[in-house]
Amino acid sequence: MKWKKPMAAVGTLALLSAAACGGSDSSSDTDEGDQTTVGEAGLAQDPNVEPPAAPIEGAQSGGTVTVLSAAGLNTMMPPEAYYTNTGSILTSLVTRELTQYRYNADIGGMELVPDLATDLGQHNEDFTEWTFTIRDGVRYEDGTEVTAEDFGTAIDMSMDRKQFPDGAEYSNEYFLNGQTYKGRYTDPQGSCDCYEIDGNTITIKMERPFPSMNYWGSFPAMSPIPADKSEDPDEYALHPLSTGPYMFDQYEPETSLTLVKNPEWDPNTDPARHQYVDQWDMKLLEDSSALDQVIIEDQGDAQTTLTYDNLLLPDYQKAQAQAPERVVAGPDPCQFYVFPDVRKITDPKVREAMAWGYPYKDAWLAGGEIVGVTRSPETQIVPKGVTGRVTPPYDVYGNGGQETDPDKAQELLKEAGKLGMELKFLYASDDPPSVDVKDVLVRAWKEAGFTPKPVATTVAEFSTLRADPNTDINYRTGGWCLDWPVWDSWLPPLFQTDQYANYSYFSNKQVDQQLRQLQSEPPAQAAEDAQDVEKEIMEKYKPVIPVGKGGVAMMHGSRINGMEVDSVYGLLTWKDVWISQ
Amino acid sequence: MTLPPTAADEALRHADEVSAAPEAVKIHGRSPMQIAFERLRHDWVAVISSVIVLFFIVIALFAPLIANAFGVEEGIVENPSDVLELDTGYGLEGPPNHGFTWDHPLGVAPSTGKDNLAEWLFGARTSLEVAFVSAIGATSLGIVFGLLAGFSRGWLDRIISFFLDLFLSFPFILGALSLAPILINRFGSDAAKLDQAQFYSLILILVFFSWMYLARLIRGEVLSLREREFIQAARVIGVPTRRILFKELLPNMIAPIVVSFSLGLPAFVAAEAGLAFLGIGLTERPSWGQTILDAIPHFEVYPLFLWAPVIGIMVLVVALNLLGDSLRDAFDPKTRR
C-alpha cells in the first residue's frame, strides 16, 4: 500500500535511507509494540459476525469531528484510492466492500469480517474461483439497491490501468484475463470474462491461485459501483456513491472533505460500522506543527479534533507530558529496508558489511523519527502479526536490527577484498531531514570502510529516480506497507523478479519458482513453508537489509473516544469513533 | 601693442594675488570622500554600526579559529545517538533539557547533534561571503552597464535599457526556484561540486537580479553629466572615451556607488537566509536560513536554537542598513552642514 501522499512518501522514504530503525535502548518501548502482537496486522478472521455491529459501551451520538492532516487526499475514486489515508477513509466511512476489518479490543487489533458479502467468500480447492453472496436490502445513498452486477462493474473498472494508473494492480495480477483485458473505460466493448453473476452471488475466476482474495475484497476497488451513474469517471470521482454510514457533502480534491450521515445506510446490514458521529470535517494540507499545537492545547473545537498524522518529535514530547491519554500510538503496517542493488553489489559479504556499517539509530534520529514509537528495530522480512512470519525469530546479520559495528564491517569488507568500495545513494537536497540523514550516512559509511557517494536530487524527482533501474546508484532505501496481513503481501513483491518493491533487482529463477509454488498451496501449509523460504532467501542471498519497522503516534482532542490504531492501514479506527457530549 | 596675457602670466598674477592676501585663512581643498568620512566620524550611529559589522566580519574571517577556541566543530562530528537522548532527540548535555555546558555553549541541534555555536559561526561566514561577493559583483556590473548606457547614445543605450527593464520585470524568486532543481540534477552526483555550483549560482542569481538598480542610477547621472562643460571640453581635446568614462565621470559618482553597495549588503544577507529557508539556497554548508527552518518546530521547547540565527541575521542586517543610511547622508551634497 502506498503512503498517505506522494510528497510525504518521498520525504519519508528519503529519510528512510537513514531512518532505519533504531532500536530503542529501553526495552519497555519495544514491548509496547509487542502487547498487541495477535491482532497487530489483522491476523484474525471471523466469517460468522452478524449485523448489526455490537454497540460500544457508553458511546454517545452526535457531534462533528474535525480531522486535520498535512497530507492531501490524492483521489477518492474507489478503483484508484491506494494511499493509506484515502483507502482507510473510503472503506471505513463511505463505501462498503465485500469484506472489511474491524477493531477487536479482545485481541487488541484488527480482524477481517464480512461486509456486503454474507461471509468471507467461498473458494474452490485451488483458490482459482471465489464466490461471494451479496446481502439483500443494501442501498446507495440515492436509494437504489446494490446488486451483484455493480461488483462486476467495479471489477471491470479496477482492471483499467490506463484510466487509473495509481490504483492497486491485484485484479490485473490475479483475475482471469487480467493481463489482456484493458478495463471498462479503455476497452468499453471488451470483457474480462472473469466473473459470473447469478442472482445475488458473484463468482470471480482467477488466472492463478489467489488465496488472499478475501483480503483484496476489503479494498475500495471492490466496492459496488452502479454502471449507469459512473459513465464519466472524472465526475464520479468527485462524488462516489455511498453505501456506508456517511456520504460526501462538500469535497475539494486534495484540500477538504465533509461527510454527513447517509440516511440509506441500514445498521442491520453492517456487521462492523457505527454511526455515532453526525458529521466529519476533514481539513487537509494543514501545517504539521500548527495542527499538533491545536490538538495539544485542546481548546474549544479542538476537543473534537483528531489527526492521523504522526506527531512531530518535539510535539510528541509535549503531548506525552501534558496529555498522554490522548496520544494513540501503536504499530503501523510498514517496514523499511536498505536494498543493495545485487546487480552491482554482487558479493553477499559486502551486503553483510553494509548491515554492520549502517547507522541505525543515528539515521533514525536524523530523520526525525520518534525512537521506539515511529521506528523500532526489525530483523525479519514478514513483520509481526502477519501470517507466515518466521518463528522463532531469526537475525541473519546478527545485529539485532539496530547495532552498528564499523570494525566488523571493515573486516568483512577486507575478507571480500572490497575495502573502500563506493556506495552511491540518493537523497533529496531540498528536504532538510533527508540532507541530515545523508550527512549521517556519509560519516557512517566512511567509518565502515566504504566510500560514500551521495547523489543529490529533489523531492519531486526522488521516487521516479529511485524506481528507475538504470539510475546510477548502487543501493536504494525504501519501505513497504502491507496490503493484507499475509506473507504473500511481502515476499513476492520484495523478492520476485521485476516486482514493484524489488529495489534490490534480485532475480533468481529458483526463488521465483518457490514463491509461485507457495501461492498455490493451501494457506495454512503455505504459511509454514513461507517461513523456510524467507529464511533461505535471507541466509543464502542476503538481498535486503531490514532497517526498522514503522509505528504511528496520532493524537485526538479530549472529547473524542474510540480512537485506536488500525494496524492494517496504519491509521485510526474510524468506525468506532464517538464524541462525549 | 601688447600681447594678450599668456597662461604663464596669468598664473603668475594669481600667485601674486595669493601671496598678496597676507596670512589668509588656510584653505585646504577637501575631497567629497574626506568630507564624508569626517561626517561619519561624528555620527555615533555610523560608528556603532560599523563596530558591529566589523565584529561580524571578524567572526566570518576567523570562524574556524573561534570554533576551535570553544572546542566545537562544524558538521556532524559525533554519532547523533552518542550525543542525543534517544527518546527526545535533544542533547544529552546543554539546553533544553540540561544546564549550560561549555562543551556546547549554544547546545546541540536536535536530530543531528551538530553544535549550534559552530553552525552559527560558519553560518555568519556563509552569509557575509555571499553578501560581499554578490554586492561587489552587482556593483561592478551596475557601474559598467550604467556608464555604457548613459554615455553611448543610440542603439547600445537602447539595448542595455531593454535588458535593464527585462531583468527588473523578471520575478526573482521564480528564477531561484526554477534554477535550484536544475542545478541539483546537473551536479547532484558529486557533493563537493554541488556545493560549489550552489554557491556560485546563488551569487550569480543575486547579482543578476540586482545590478539593474545601480545601473539605472548611474545611467541617469551620466545622462546629465555628459552635457556638462568639463566633459565637452574633454571630448573636444580628444580624450579617449574610456578615459572620459573612468577618469572624468566615475569619480563624480562615488557617492551613489558607495551607498548602493552598502545598502546592497543587508539585502543580500537577508536574501541568502530567505532562500536557504525555502530550501533553494545552499544546502551543503551551514547557513542561518537553514538553521531557522530546522529550529521552527522546536521553538516552544528549545527557543535558543531559533534565537541564535534570528538574532544574528537581525543584528547584522540592521547594522548594515544603518551604516548604509549614514553613508548616504554623509555623501549627500545637499545635506552639507
Features of this protein?
heterodimer; A: 581 residues; alpha+beta; B: 337 residues; mainly alpha; elongated
Task: Explain the overall architecture.
- The complex is a heterodimer of chains A (581) and B (337).
- Chain A is α+β, with helices and mostly antiparallel strands and 581 residues long.
- In chain A, 29% of the residues lie in helices and 19% in strands.
- In chain A, strands 2, 9, 10, 11, 12, 13, 14, 17 and 18 form a nine-stranded mixed β-sheet that branches.
- In chain A, strand 20 and strand 21 (571-572) form a beta hairpin.
- In chain A, helix 16 packs antiparallel against helix 17 (523-541).
- Chain A is globular and about 70 Å long.
- The model of chain A is unreliable at 4-42 (pLDDT under 50).
- Chain B has 337 residues and is mainly alpha-helical.
- Chain B has 15 helices and no strands.
- The longest helix of chain B has 36 residues, at 116-151.
- Chain B is elongated, with a radius of gyration of 27 Å.
- The relative contact order of chain B is 0.13.
- At the A-B interface, helix 9, helix 11, helix 13 and strand 16 of A face helix 8 and helix 14 of B.
Brief sketch in words of this structure:
With 581 residues, chain A is of the alpha+beta class.
Topology:
The complex is a heterodimer of chains A (581) and B (337).
Chain A: H1 6-19, H2 27-34, E1 44-45, E2 64-68, H3 84-94, E3 99-104, E4 109-114, E5 122-123, E6 129-133, H4 148-158, H5 170-174, E7 195-198, E8 201-205, H6 213-216, H7 233-238, E9 246-252, E10 256-261, E11 279-283, H8 288-297, E12 305-307, H9 313-322, E13 327-340, H10 348-357, H11 360-366, E14 375-376, H12 406-416, E15 422-428, H13 432-447, E16 451-457, H14 459-467, E17 475-481, H15 491-495, H16 509-519, H17 523-541, E18 545-556, E19 560-561, E20 565-566, E21 571-572, E22 578-579
Parallel strand pairs in A: 1-4, 2-11, 2-12, 15-16
Antiparallel strand pairs in A: 3-4, 5-6, 6-8, 7-8, 9-10, 10-11, 12-18, 13-17, 13-18, 14-18, 19-22, 20-21
Helix pairs in contact in A: 1-11, 1-13, 1-14, 8-9, 10-12, 11-13, 16-17
Chain B: H1 7-20, H2 32-42, H3 44-61, H4 63-70, H5 80-83, H6 116-151, H7 155-169, H8 172-187, H9 191-208, H10 211-225, H11 229-236, H12 241-249, H13 254-277, H14 288-295, H15 303-331
Helix pairs in contact in B: 2-15, 3-6, 3-15, 4-6, 6-7, 6-9, 6-10, 6-13, 6-15, 7-10, 8-9, 11-12, 13-14, 13-15, 14-15
